[in-house]
Write a structure and sequence with these properties.
It is built from 5 helices and no strands. By secondary structure, the protein is mainly α. Helix 3 crosses helix 5. The radius of gyration is 14 Å and the shape is globular.
């Protein structure tokens, strides 16, 4: 069985996953909301690899605009990418005055 992250490691991971692009943050926040209690060290490694990408490159992967390729095409990255893409991001309702 894979080792789960402890509270301190999870807190550091959350901090490391903060992004400058709101769209990326929405994907990441949803990931943590659904998987926070069960994140393993393997998933954390995959997520950290994705966090090394630029915001635009990360968004392209999250939206499926480009395939996962090259040195980051790793099993743990593929696993986390699937989890990040799993369910649609809720779109806020437009407010009218």
């Amino acid at each position: 069985m894979e080792e789960r992250l402890d509270e301190r490691s999870l807190s550091k991971l959350r901090w490391r996953c903060r992004r400058g692009l709101l769209e990326n943050d929405l994907f990441i926040e949803r990931f943590f909301r659904h998987h926070e209690e069960t994140i393993t060290t393997r998933q954390a490694a995959g997520l950290m690899t994705l966090m090394d990408l630029t915001d635009n490159d990360l968004l392209d992967l999250l939206l499926g605009r480009v395939p996962l390729a090259g040195e980051i095409d790793l099993p743990e990255v593929r696993e986390v990418l699937v989890q990040l893409r799993q369910s649609p991001i809720p779109v806020p309702a437009k407010h009218t005055l």
